[in-house]
Amino acid sequence: MRNFNDWLSKFKESVADYKYYVDFDKVYKEVEKIKVELNIMNSLIGSKNIEKDFEKLLKDYPQILKCIPILLAKREKEIIAIDEEGTYNFNFNKMNYTVDEYKMFMRKTGLFELISNRLVNNLVDYVLGVESGLNSNGRKNRGGHLMENILEGYLKKSNLTYFKEMYLKDIESKWGLDLASISNAGKSAKRFDFVVKTESCIYAIECNFYSSNGSKLNETARSYKMIALESKNISGFKFVWFTDGIGWKSARKNLEETFDVLEDLYSIDDLENDIILKKIK
């Protein structure tokens, strides 16, 4: 019998790799898309009459519009602005207001001041910094993908036949299993991160990593506990869950409840100790 407290004590603080913090390849690609327009806008840096210079630049090079939102750390090409003068929904793909109104936008957002007062020396470098900041916000999603990458590495090493992101209905149709007890008689569109096919069994696998606490953890534990109970009597099918992260220490009660009913609940430490080769056959 495994001891829950011993198992939980080996959970890891992080699974971050070197790309976790900022994916610079993606940052460079985003900047490259508007590099020409940013360099055109560089001509406005230090302008003594920036409103007049911007008006001329916009008429000569209307394509500079598309690089303006990212100067405000916005990737969307429509920006809503509201004040006592009214509500505006500026389009930066194609002008939907007058040049004067776009000048008003630049003035009121502070972009004219930023550019004309030389608070930045190069807009390409400035946007590189903005994109790096925006990219760092994706760490939460990258954490989930990192756990998937770790698990997939072990699946590859085990030489097992596996499939990624497979829906319940696809499992049923591919191998003739009746999963109605899990799918709420076909009403659920549940998708598993991985499905492993062996000669004797179909293993439906979920994996995640939580470095911080939150309500999502309790919801996940309850949901997977339900799947564990509903799938126990399905012949030739097993539900497997790989999870880790110190976030679970604040939600240990719900995790322990699932641990008690789900035999195939494992951590990274289990992976490192060859649990796949020992349990998935």
Structure description:
This protein has 281 residues and is α/β, with parallel strands linked by helices. It folds into two domains: 4-17 and 139-279, Trna Endonuclease, Chain: A, domain 1 (3-Layer(aba) Sandwich), CATH 3.40.1350; 34-136, no CATH class. It contains 15 helices and seven strands. The protein has helices at 4-9, 24-33, 35-41, 50-60, 68-71, 99-109, 111-116, 123-136, 139-157, 168-175, 180-183, 215-231, 252-261, 268-272, 275-279; strands at residues 78-83, 86-91, 161-167, 191-197, 202-209, 237-244, 265-266. Helix 12 links the parallel strand 5 (202-209) and strand 6 (237-244). Helix 4 (50-60) packs across helix 6 and helix 12 (215-231) runs parallel beside helix 13. The longest helix has 19 residues, at 139-157. The mean pLDDT is 93.
Main attributes of the structure:
281 residues, alpha/beta, Trna Endonuclease, Chain: A, domain 1, 2 domains, 7 strands
